[in-house]
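Q: For a teaching handout, I want to show students what a protein-ligand complex looks like in C-alpha cell form. Below are the inputs, and the small molecule is adenosine-5'-triphosphate. Please produce the holo structure.
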Amino acid sequence: MLEVRELEAWYGQAQALWGIDVDVADGEVVALVGPNGAGKSTLVQAVAGLHRSTRGTIAVDGVDVARVPAHRVGDHGVALVPEGRRVFARMTVHDNLVLGAYRRGARPGLAAGLERVHGLFPRLAERSSQLAGSLSGGEQQMLAIGRALLAQPRLLLMDEPSLGLAPVVVDEVFDAIRTINADGVSVLLVEQDVERALEVSARGYVLAEGRIVASGSAAELTGSALVRKSVLGL
Ligand code: ATP
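A: Here is the structure, written as C-alpha cells, with adenosine-5'-triphosphate included.
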C-alpha cells in the first residue's frame, strides 16, 4: 500500500535523505531502524505530508501523496503517531481523541473509533475527562496512538513509540501494535529498540546517514552483522 521511490529530502540546502525506496504491503508491520540522525523521522514525516521539501514519489495505494496538500494526506489513509507524543496537554483525553477524527471522512466513525480505542487502552476510558498533561508518559503515548487511530488510518506511521517509557508500558505499546495490525492496519514503525521492533515486524529497513543500507525479513536483519554493527553498535 505504500511505495516510496527515489525519495530525497532537504532541510534548506542540507540533504537528509538520498534515493530511499521503501515498501509496506497491505497488512504488514515494517520496522525502520538506524542510528540517531539517520533520517528516520524525516522519512515518516515526509510520508505523513509534514516534510514537503522532497523529490521522488510517495505512493499510497497508487496516489502520490507528496503531491497532495498536507492537510489532505490523511484522506488517503495515513496517520502519524509523532515522536514525543505531542498531545494537547491543556485539553482533556476525550478532546484529544476527538481531534484525531478531524478529517471529514473520519467523523462518522467517531463513536465506534472511541469504543475501539477505549477497548485497546482501558486507561484512556477511565481518564477520559482528565487533562492530557496530567497523564503519565505511557498514558500520553497511548493517547497519541489512540488519536491517530481515530483518523481511521490504513497505514499507521509510528515514530519512536517506546522512547522513555517504563518496560511494563513498553510491553503494552508493543501489544497494542500487534492488535492494531491484527485489525487490518499496516504499520511503519520507527524504533530505537531494534530487537523489539523486529519481533513485531515482518520486514525491516536499516537507515544510516540518509540512505537505506540494509533491508530484509526480520529474521535476516536480526542475524545480520551489519545491523548489529551499524544499529546496535555491537
Ligand atoms: P533521531 O533518532 O535522532 O530522531 P532520525 O533518524 O529520526 O534521528 P532525523 O531527525 O530525520 O533523524 O534527522 C535526519 C538529519 O536531518 C539529521 O542530520 C538532522 O540533523 C537533520 N535535521 C533534522 N531536523 C532538522 C531541522 N529541522 N533542520 C535542519 N536539519 C534537520
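A: Two things your students might notice: The mean pLDDT is 91. The pocket of adenosine-5'-triphosphate is lined by residues 11, 14, 16, 34, 36-42 (CB under 6 Å).
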